[in-house]
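Hi support team,

I've been running sequence recovery on a batch of backbones for a student project. Most finish fine, but this one hangs at about 90% for roughly twenty minutes before it completes. I'm not sure whether the input is malformed or the queue is just slow. I've pasted the structure tokens below so you can try to reproduce it. Let me know if you need the job ID as well.

Thanks,
M.K.
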């Protein structure tokens, strides 16, 4: 597989799991940066909601200060792991040799094929065995309308300058497993919808998401999913976000007790009844917005 395609796939995985969650009854303040204290911590750690694809990845002064006050950066994945590409290759493809043409009608397959050829310049046969959600995610950079920048990359740049380690809350294997738990047919339906309208709805949704992020409205980001319950990201939000959030709490606790840590995770993970903020509070931590 060509290296340029692999780069697109790695980027696709990084942004695939971060834009949707469940509705929350308790409103949270508009803030992307949250301080974690109490429950035996002698020094605060910080939780920051990121967006993996943006036009401006400049970090605010409060975020820089929080990075200065911590000694470890933990993202969703260990983006410094030199074996990430190899690990990802092992989990790209559907089980049992399934192909996209096994999941949709012949006419719909042709629609997707023409869309992939037009937008990506490659035949669908080249990537047809991949999990459909990852094929969809390859088109995400086209939703932005500007050169893609990453908040995670900016966070890592600071960490590297401070000679701090970068670790992850989960592995590449664990992230890719999510796309085996969600029915391939549902993933293919999402891809077909994008192909039929040539990303029109996707672009409108992403523009709205960026506005919520700019306003630091983590509640608004969550409520977006209520507008389109047919998307697999909404239908399977328990697998996309909730279960992962729960798994992260013990790891956040472990890291934070060892040293003050800065956590950068997709902003949609923060709010909600199963969001990281509420789960940390239920675990006994004080989690307060930093304005």
């Amino acid at each position: 597989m060509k290296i340029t395609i692999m780069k697109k796939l790695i980027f696709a995985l990084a942004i695939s799991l971060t834009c949707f969650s469940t509705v929350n009854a308790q409103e949270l303040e508009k803030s992307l940066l949250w301080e974690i204290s109490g429950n035996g911590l002698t020094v605060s750690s910080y939780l920051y909601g990121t967006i993996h694809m943006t036009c401006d990845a400049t970090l605010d002064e409060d975020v820089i200060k929080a990075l200065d006050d911590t000694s470890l950066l933990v993202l969703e994945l260990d983006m410094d792991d030199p074996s990430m590409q190899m690990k990802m290759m092992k989990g790209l493809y559907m089980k049992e040799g399934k192909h996209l043409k096994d999941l949709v009608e012949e006419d719909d397959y042709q629609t997707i094929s023409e869309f992939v050829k037009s937008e990506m310049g490659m035949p669908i046969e080249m990537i047809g065995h991949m999990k459909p959600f990852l094929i969809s995610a390859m088109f995400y950079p086209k939703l932005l309308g500007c050169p893609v920048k990453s908040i995670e990359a900016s966070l890592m740049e600071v960490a590297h300058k401070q000679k701090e380690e970068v670790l992850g809350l989960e592995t590449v294997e664990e992230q890719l497993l999510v796309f085996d738990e969600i029915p391939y047919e549902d993933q293919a339906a999402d891809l077909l919808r994008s192909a039929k309208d040539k990303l029109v709805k996707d672009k409108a949704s992403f523009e709205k998401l960026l506005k919520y992020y700019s306003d630091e409205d983590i509640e608004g980001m969550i409520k977006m999913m209520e507008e389109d319950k047919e998307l697999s990201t909404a239908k399977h939000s328990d697998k996309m976000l909730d279960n992962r959030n729960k798994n992260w709490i013990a790891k956040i606790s472990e890291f934070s007790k060892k040293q003050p840590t800065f956590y950068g995770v997709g902003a949609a993970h923060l709010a909600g009844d199963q969001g990281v903020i509420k789960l940390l509070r239920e675990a006994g931590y004080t989690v307060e917005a930093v304005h």
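--
Follow-up from support: It reproduced on our side and the slowdown came from queue contention, not your input. Residues 3-289 form one domain. No action needed from you.
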